Amino acid sequence: MSREFRIGHTPPDWLVGNLRPKQEPVNWPAVVRAAVAMSLPLAVGLAFGEPAYGALASMGAVSGVLGDTADAYRMRILNIAIPQLVGAVGVTVGVLTHGRGWTTVAAVTGVALVSGMLSSIGAIASVSALLLLLNCVIAAGLPLPGPWWAAPLLLSGGGLLVLVLALLTWPLRSGVPERASVGDTYRAVADLLAACGSDRYDAVRHAVTRSLDLSYDLVLARRARHHGRSPELVLLLAQLNAITPIVEAAPAVHRYGRPLPDEVPAAVRRLADAVDVGHEGSIALDLPQPHDETGHAVDHALRHAAEVVTARSVDSRTIVDRLGRPASLRVRAYRATRNVVLSGASWRYGLRLALCIGIAQALVSLVPVPRSYWIALTVTFVLKPDLGSVFSRALLRALGTVAGLLVAAVVLAAVPLGWWDVPALMVLGPLIPLLTPRGYGYQTAAITPVILVLSDVLNHLGTALLVPRLVDSLIGCAIALVAGYLLWPESWHTRVGDRLANAVADTAEYVEAAFGDSTDPAARTRMRRHLYRDLSTIRTEFQRALTEPPPTGRRAAAWWPLVVAVERIVDATTAARVRVKQGARPPSAAEITQVTLQLRELSEGLRESDVLVARRTDLTGPADSILEPLRQEVAAARAIASPH
Questions:
Q1: Whose CB has fewer CB within 10 Å in the chain, the N or C terminal residue?
Q2: What pLDDT does residue 545 have?
Q3: Residue among 350, 238, 387 nearest 304 (CA)
Q4: Most confidently predicted of 2-11, 274-283, 591-600
Q5: 23 φψ region: left (φ > 0), alpha (ψ -120 to 50), beta (else)
Q6: CA 422 to each of CA 71, 153, 173, 228, 599: distance values in angstroms, whole numbers, following the listed order
Q7: Per residue in 285-302, pLDDT tens?
Q8: Contact 542, 552 (CB under 8 A)
Q9: Does 180 lie in the same domain as 166?
């Protein structure tokens, strides 16, 4: 009886997954910047007798704090400055159409359409599009002080203040974030070698993939401006390339070798320390004598990495083929514009967002709801599929708003209006970067009291703001769920197999390239990195889908074993390639063709069906073949059946 009661009252897994806080490190410099950037503008406004102007600038600082997530200084400029400039356009449109009835509805709905379409370009464009719509909604729904140009200037100025604070240490720490990221990647690889042969291997390998992706993004983003002329960046890129053979050798060690001696991971960590400080000269690796082919592969790759890490300089011509010269800004802008205009997904998301914003704006035009811009703000925050599940964000938005309102109630009741708001913001502002990494609900709980305190400076309503804000948030969540989620079957009935089908087809090409003598080694490396990056993205998307309620969450759970199986196929291919390189007998062309045909058939099956169907697998070959483990992994992937 007690067991039945306990099971019946256990929350569903998708709900627990949504509420569980993520374990992420705290960015303490960003916390300090948030305290200064949010309180300083209000203090200046109060000092000059214009608290409303100060409150507007502090509101702009909120968006700057949300974009203050990059480690590299040049990426901070892109992440903060570009969204602020785009957001200024939104403020201007909102100010010019404020209080104009259906003209306001049409203008904000049009901005929502553009915002939704821009979100499909990339991460920075998505943040810019979000700020474009948010600022437009605020300016269209809230009477802002001063002439029409004051609000864009103040809101953007507050966000750019965060950027100025973030760049203060640039002259002293130029290049340090990039070196630290590469060093962290070496440490992640050291952890991977230490985990070979243990149950921790898969989790650590995923961490290595994320670390490599981050480091390449940081280095290549900075190198795009220099076009290979910076010796420091060329060396960092060479160091990242040098760690790749060690990463490729790890699956072979995990599958075929014995656990590596502790001296091997320790040597990689010494290389990581050398990367951090820019060490030149030899490093004593103290490596033991390897005893098998996988150990020889790691030993050879590690010694090569040591040569690169301790080199004074690297010839940029040796790595150009691996990267290529970045396209000009004009070419990239043309490609992005073309992709947005011609993309069906871009138009569908733009129309979804425009529909929901149009409903929200029409509602507040027909029904007298005081300062109801909060409804459209809620829709804007919730209806961002590129930031996670719409259903989950609606749920977390509602819960986070309730928690934030409780904090705001205490602050608004206890803190007198005026100078006491400055220390209040110094305490509340840092909670945004502190809690944002924990999850969207925690971020909402941190932002809500800050916005309400600043809103109180503008309208002097005090605790009378609380109940209307809760009602507005719940209405906005309801609009997003019904008009932006339930009415669009693609949002809750997605054919998750399509995402895996491309990865399986790419895996077949990788198998062919791994054992083909005509394949360029650099091209093979790029193919493997591209495949691991795609699988990491797929894993993230499926983990998001697991937080959805049925049927989406249940379907994602059914497909999850196949995601893991495809990752194991790639690992098995890489391990076999390393063994062949170390002298093992290569597979025959017939064996390779047999495996690739099975993978392509699996890929086509994933495209055709919305459920998993077990498929017969006839994979035969010599038991001592180098491809025997790979055949077993392919057979296991094809044997996964739907639970229905």
A1: N
A2: 76
A3: 238
A4: 591-600
A5: beta
A6: 28, 21, 31, 46, 62
A7: 788 888 788 888 899 999
A8: no
A9: no
Spatial CA neighbour of 426 closest among 37, 30, 40, 39? 39
Shared-domain flag, residues 344 and 457: yes
Write the pLDDT tens digit of every residue in 29-52: 999 999 999 999 999 999 999 999
Considering only CA atoms, which of 140, 44, 131, 43 is closest in space to residue 81? 131
- Evaluate the CA torsion angle 382, 384, 386, 391 in order and state its sign: positive
What letter represents residue 599's amino acid? L
CA angle (117 as vertex; 330, 94 as ends), nearest 5: 100
* Identity of the amino acid at 634: V
Show the tokens assigned to 127: 């943040």
Report d(CA 459, CA 96) in Å as an integer.
20
Domain termination residue (choose one: 280, 297, 323): 323
Instruction: Compute the distance between CA of residue 492 and CA of residue 544 in angstroms, rounded to an integer.
Output: 12
90-121: b (≥16 Cβ within 10 Å) or e: bbbbbbebbeeeeebbebbbbbbbbbbbbbbb
Q: In terms of Cα–Cα distance, which of 571, 570, 562 is closest to 497? A: 562
- The neighbour count for residue 331, using CB atoms within 10 Å, is 10
User: For residue 460, how many C-alpha atoms fall within 13 Å in the half-sphere facing its CB?
Assistant: 4
**Cα separation, 610 vs 495, whole angstroms:** 6
Q: Are residues 147 and 279 in the same domain?
A: no
What six digits make up the tokens of 110?
């049009």
Instruction: Kindly give the residue spans of alpha helices, DSSP state H, lying in 325-384.
Output: 329-342, 344-366, 373-382
User: Which residues, 6 or more positions from 114, have their beta carbon under 8 angstroms from its beta carbon?
Assistant: 129, 132, 350
| pLDDT on residue 141 | 85
Question: Does 507 reside within a domain?
Answer: yes
Find, among 484, 602, 486, 500, the residue nearest to 541 by Cα.
Answer: 500
Q: Are residues 26 and 140 in the same domain?
A: yes
Most confident of 226-230, 317-321, 347-351, 477-481: 477-481
User: What's the pLDDT tens digit per position in 551-585?
Assistant: 777 777 778 888 888 889 999 999 998 888 888 88
Domain of residue 86, residue span: 13-170+331-491
